[in-house]
Amino acid sequence: MTALMPEGVAVARDLVGPALAASVDRLSPEVRTVAAYHLGLTDAQGRPTGSGGKALRPALALLSARAAGAAPQRGVPAGVAVELVHNFSLLHDDIMDGDIERRHRPTAWKIYGVGAAILAGDGLLALAQDILLEDGGPQGSWAARCLSAAVLRLIAGQGSDLAFEQRDDVTLGECLTMAGDKTAALMACACSIGAVYIGAPPALAMGLAGFGAHAGLAFQLTDDLLGIWGAPEITGKPVRSDLRSRKKSLPVVAALTSGTAQGSQLAELLAGKEPLTEDDLVVAQRLVEESGGKRWTEAEADTQLAEAERCLAETDMPDDVRAEFSAIAQFITTRQS
Length: 337
What we know:
The protein is 72% helix and 1% strand. The protein is globular. The mean pLDDT is 93. A two-stranded antiparallel ribbon has the order 1-2. It has a single domain (7-332), classed as Farnesyl Diphosphate Synthase. The protein contains 16 helices and 2 strands.
């Protein structure tokens, strides 16, 4: 099943896309080349592609401005900033995970080198703060602080993710905390930063952030399912990519801590030092499912999505904006395998 892209995402791409491209043009030529490629604005030869990312986080930022009664255009700087930070994290994440493909193309570090990709990520992070602080008023500073807090949590989550690779005793609680930091914190920021940027009441911003935190966890749980069961044409990565890299994703940790015979077999299989063969990957996938790892992850994603909807219902905003937030949450957590 493939979900239809919510209308608000297309609107955000139209509004934020030109501003995003203009911000990248401010980078030095060498860094700009890598950043533009990673963002999908150009191909590896630097030729414009006329495309870009999904613009999910910018769409959420513009919606949060609308939730506060402002026109979506008011939230464009916030949308650009959060998209720049998201892509900063992806550039560095691809290097740390050794991923060679993203969005059905070679990752930036594979084409331009590790050093160039790191610098491009650094440039995007610095640009994001500049764009918010150019507002000149207190709201720009508040939004910048909101984004910085999310980045610090994102870095903490990435640090935990790396540390988990060296451990065989990771608990589900630790894994959920890591996902909350690495993924949900920036999603919560995206859902509230537009409101913060225009000076909305704190109660609105906090309600929107709560929605984003739960939706972000549901998104990560779904993404982890796709990392094992997702089709390459959907994920943009090789089939069973998370198992191939022995990543301690949520379904895997749920399986390893299930107390089942299949969980023990999975632990033994993943403990080996040799690269996993295609047959090994098929067996590992089956063991995750038979031990209940897939079932637990699906149920937890549903729980987090329900909590996100509760936050929406309890936060005062126009009904059409609430409906659009809900549509995006449903879109990003639709299982496509």
